[in-house]
Amino acid sequence: MINITKKIALVLFVCGTVFTSCSSDDKNENEVVDTATLKTFKDVTFSLDEEEGFTATRFFSTETGKSYKKTQIDATILPKIDIAFYGENSSLNYFVSPNDPDDGILKATTTDYINYVKDQYTIDQFNKLENGADLNGLTIVDDGETFPDNKLPLLVLFKNAAGKKGVIYVKSVHRVGGDPRIVVDIKIQK
């Protein structure tokens, strides 16, 4: 009787271990923190390769929480894209409206950016931001500016076509190796 009990316990233990290890393999593309009024996306990457030949992408949807290469965007995804990035060299990086005629996609939505934030918002404010209403007072008008690699970390303010305001915290740039990219955190009103 004891041997049967031990065997049953062993089988249950192995099944539990297998189930737990399989379920932990399920991973979101980007870590999302969702509160009642604010969505936060951590460690989102944007490609510095215009051809998007590597794993990083140039387009992001705060609605789906996913990054996309231009070739992955169809008629269903297109209206959900609200962040686009372009980086040509170490002195020419910028977030651009998804419908930009040069670097965007025809018939995409419009997003305004302040790529060169002077004193409107600080990294400390970004880190403490937990309520979407705290972004209401920001005036965001597209500035057409760029930012160089050597000014990182920095913030970019944006307002998407739905009128939701957000902040992009550009944390790092990686130009060496086979997958050139920037890494950001994003907070946006719900």
Structural class of the helices, strands and pairings?
alpha+beta
How is the main sheet built? 6 strands, antiparallel
| Oligomeric state | single chain
Q: What is the N-to-C succession of helices and strands? A: HEEEEEEEHEEE
Percent of sequence in beta strands: 25-35%
**N/C terminus separation:** 59 Å
The helix fraction, in percent, is 10-25%
List low-pLDDT spans: 9-28
Number of strands: 10
Radius of gyration over all CA atoms, rounded? 21 Å
Mean pLDDT: 85
Number of helical stretches of at least 4 residues: 2
- What is the 3D shape? globular
The largest beta-sheet arranges its strands as: 1-2-10-9-8-7
Notes on the protein architecture:
- This protein is an alpha+beta fold.
- Helix content is 15%, strand content 32%.
- It is built from 2 helices and 10 strands, in the order αβββββββαβββ.
- The longest helix has 22 residues, at 2-23.
Summarize this structure as a short list of keywords or feature phrases.
190 residues, alpha+beta, six-stranded antiparallel beta sheet, 15% helix
Quick structural gist:
The chain has 190 residues and is of the alpha+beta class. It is built from 2 helices and 10 strands, in the order H-E-E-E-E-E-E-E-H-E-E-E.
Describe the SSE topology.
Layout lengths: L1 H22 L7 E4 L3 E10 L11 E3 L4 E3 L14 E7 L2 E5 L15 E3 L8 H6 L25 E6 L5 E10 L6 E9 L1
Antiparallel strand pairs: 1-2, 2-10, 3-4, 3-5, 5-6, 7-8, 8-9, 9-10
